[in-house]
Amino acid sequence: GRIMESYIGEFEQAKKLDDVIMERDMKSRIDSLGSVTDNVEVKFLYNNYKGDEEIGYKKYLLAERWYKMSEPYLSKINKGVYYAKLKNLYWVWGKTDEALKYALLCIEQEGSIIDTYLSYLDVAKLYQVKGDSISCFRIIDTVCAVMDSFAEPREINKIYVYRAMCHSGFKEYEKALADY
User: Fold this and answer.
1) Maximum Cα–Cα distance for the chain, whole Å?
2) CB–CB of 165/125 below 8 Å?
3) Helix 113-130 crosses helix 153-169 at what angle (to 10 degrees)?
4) Is residue 95 within 8 Å of 66, Cβ to Cβ?
5) Per-residue pLDDT reduced to its tens digit, 8-22
6) What is the pLDDT of residue 18?
7) What 3 state SS string does the chain have?
């Protein structure tokens, strides 16, 4: 798994530096390793890499296929990462119900709400997109109930911003302004 992670990291760095030769070389190494390995962790990383690549091209059906190729390995991989990949895919694809399904699965896989508040906020945002204000604010209130446990002011700020966005999405502008 470490070699694949290294290749993917070097590939991302080459893209940032606009090093086309290195980018092509790393892509070739990633594809070679991913296509021949029997290692579950490497296959999982490779499938995620290919799925992410297809999202970049807005080929959502292909991205879904790549991500779901990891389904047979669910007992051996990080399910939270698997579910998060699918949640993000369906979110950008505009499949809100599917995104919500996987967002809720992310929460089930993760630890305490303090560690996973961003997943809760994703769920709230998806409920807001669906127009379900009751569920949206139930999730927001769950996060707000433990807000005092957060050490970072940025985390608390993010919660208020999400809550304000939800209020705004439901045309509760006075409440939104109060949170901003």
Assistant:
1) 58
2) yes
3) 20
4) no
5) 788 788 778 887 887
6) 81
7) CHHHHHHHHHHHHHHHHCCHHHHHHHHHHHHHHHHHCCCHHHHHHHHHHHHHHHHHCCCHHHHHHHHHCCHHHCCCCCHHHHHHHHHHHHHHHCCHHHHHHHHHHHHHHCCCHHHHHHHHHHHHHHHHHHCCHHHHHHHHHHHHHCHHHCCCHHHHHHHHHHHHHHHHHCCCHHHHHHHC
Cα dihedral 74/76/80/85 (nearest 10): -60
Long-range contacts of 88-95 (CB under 8 A, 24+ apart): 88/55, 89/51, 89/55, 89/60, 89/63, 89/64, 91/122, 91/126, 92/55, 92/60, 93/60
* Nearest residue to 101 via CA among 123, 131, 85, 132: 123
Q: Is 31 exposed, middle or buried (0-12, 13-18, 19+ CB in 10 A)?
A: middle
Q: Hey, what amino acid is at 21?
A: I
Q: Pull the structure tokens for residue 14.
A: 């080459």
- pLDDT tens per residue across span 153-175: 888 898 899 999 999 999 999 99
